[in-house]
Amino acid sequence: MPSISSDALLVVGGVILWWRRRSATRARTTHLLVPDLTARKGVRRTRGWHATTGVWLAVGLLFLSATGLTWSRYAGANFGAGLDILRAGTPELSTTLDGVPPPGSGGEHQHGGAAPGTADNPASYDNVLTSARSAGLSGPVEISPAAESGLAWTVAQVDNTWPVAKDRIAVDPTTGAVTARSDFADWPLLAQLSSLGIQAHMGLLFGPINQILLAALALGLLCVIVWGYRMWWQRRPTRADRRAPLGAPPARGGVRGLPWWALLLGVPVTVALGWALPWFGVTLLGFLLIDIALGVLARRRRRTMPVSPAPAGR
């Protein structure tokens, strides 16, 4: 999603801008975290609330951005591919049954009711659940019948509240034998952190406390957005000869004013981020194309603008 891809960059950029502003004005360090209530009413006071609240929210917003990207469509696929390369992804659970003919190899046709070990037979679920309890899978579990005959069923713990229970086993639905097992404690560290991060992102990991924190984060973010638009309104020109409905945009040429080392590092990093986060890359490219087009149009207007003649006698 574009918003998830760009959130982290917006947060980091905002914190850097606020730090540079406070450093340039030699303001007290406490004003990085606490708004300056002595500031005059207007854009300065609004900026103080906007920036300091954003600093407090930064860690939570970066966490939500990172955990959201891990299960997004495109960036999540790249993240999963990276975990596979590092052999740090969620382990696969084998559902192969030794000594059982593969699906589609034929066999006797059952008559007179559902065959043992099939999804149509209610006793199969009881048999598999009993095996799961005997194997130590307590709490709520999810039983997934095999998509084809000749494969094991899977049973997975689905307790996503800390301490989580996410062990999985494969069970032969006919005999009840456990044929494979994958315990959460044995997962690679990155796979564990990714799973826990997603549950925290969804407000499940720590129960009501988790949900209250997310609600507070959302409320704070709404305030930051409103203050941002309010600053834009307060910065608008109000002189009779320069009235405008909104604040003036930043001056062009900011990239050209960067030091060479920033460009040397920034360009490849931006390209890499655009590849890893495709939605971010596409929207950034679109923004650059629009900005270039607006710059070209502005230069053409300046060239065609008539020049007023100098006053006589000068």
Automatic annotation (TrEMBL):
Keywords: Membrane, Transmembrane, Transmembrane helix
Region (Disordered): 94-125
Superkingdom assignment: Bacteria
InterPro entries tied to this protein: PepSY-ass_TM
Positions of transmembrane segments: 51-71, 212-232, 253-273, 279-298
Protein name according to UniProt: PepSY domain-containing protein
Organism, as annotated: Micromonospora sp. HUAS YX12
